[in-house]
Protein: Ribosomal protein uL3 glutamine methyltransferase
Amino acid sequence: MTSDTDESRLPSLFEADLIDDALQTLHTIQDWLRWGVSRLHQSGVFLGHGTDNPWDEAASLLATVLYLPPITDETLFSARLTLEERREFLRLLQQRIEQRVPAAYLTNQAYFAGLPFYVDERVLVPRSPIAELIQQGFSEQLAGRVPERILDLCTGSGCIAVACAYQFPEAEVDAADISPDALAVAEFNIAEHQLQHRVFPILSDGFSGLAGQQYDLIVTNPPYVDAEDMADLPDEFRHEPELGLASGHDGLALTRQILRHAAAHLTEHGVLVCEVGNSMVALQQLLPEAGLRWLEFNQGGIGVFVVDKAELVRCQPLFEEF
Ligand SMILES: C[S@@+](CC[C@H](N)C(=O)[O-])C[C@H]1O[C@@H](n2cnc3c(N)ncnc32)[C@H](O)[C@@H]1O
Structure:
C-alpha cells in the first residue's frame, strides 16, 4: 500500500542511523511514547479512526506491544522496555506511518460507547457519533419509550448492536450486514460480550433478509461517501472495506433504499436513526417536506437524522422520487 509519494514524503523518519540512535538512547515507556508522538506528528498521518491525537495513537500501539490496557497510569512511565519490545513498537509505528494503517487495525481494538471491540480490515473502524445517542438511551428520539426490538442495519463490527444491547438490557437486537466477512467480526464481538442470546447477526442486503421483521428502533450507519470524495480520502481509508464507505455516485444509494423501505420494518411508534456524510446536503433539501429531524454533532461532514414511521409513510412518494 506504500506509494512512491509516501516514501518521498517521509525520507528520514525511519532511517537506520536514527533507529539505532533511538534504540541506544531511549529506554523507558515515557521515552518511547514521546519519540512515537513526535514521529506521528511529523509524518502528518490522518487522525480520525477512533483516535484524534498522536499521544493516544502512540500509547495504544505501545500498550499492545506490552500487553497492557490503554496506558494512562503515569507510574508506568519509568518502566524500561526490552530490546524486543522497542523493536516491535518501531515495527508498528512504521506500519502506521509509512503504510498509513489505522492504529485500530494494528492493535485489533477500538472503543465505541466506552466498550472494547475487536476490529480488523474486514470492518470499518468504529467512530460514529451515534455512540453518544446510544449512551443517552435515545431518550429524545424515542420520547422515553424503551425499545424491545432493535435493528442495527449495516452492523460492521457489531459495535452499534452490542452497545444498544448494553443500553437496553431487555431488548433483542438484530445486527444485519451484506458482508459475510463483517458479520464474522460482529459475531466474534457479540460472543466476546456474551450477548449471543439476544444479539443476532443476519446476512442481509438492505432489508431484503428481514422480510416480515418489525422494530421499535432502527439504527444505521450505512456507507455514504460519494464517488468524488472516495477518490480524495486520506490513505488510511484505503485499508477499510470499500463496502463500508462507498454508496453510489452521490453517496446516497443505500440511504435512499433505507428511506423507502424502513417504514415497513418499524412498529407503530418506531423510529429510524440514520447517519449520513457530505451527502446530507441533498437530503437537507428534502427537509421542508420530509419529516427528517437533524441532530447536531461537532464532527465536520457527519450528520444524523431521525424520522418516525408516520413521517416515513407520509413522505413515501417523496422518497420514491428522490
Ligand atoms: C459505515 S460501515 C458501519 C459499520 C458499523 N455500524 C459502524 O458504525 O462502525 C457500513 C457497513 O454497511 C455494510 N453494507 C454496505 N452495503 C450494505 C447493504 N446493501 N446492506 C447491508 N449492509 C451493507 C458494510 O459491509 C459495512 O459493514
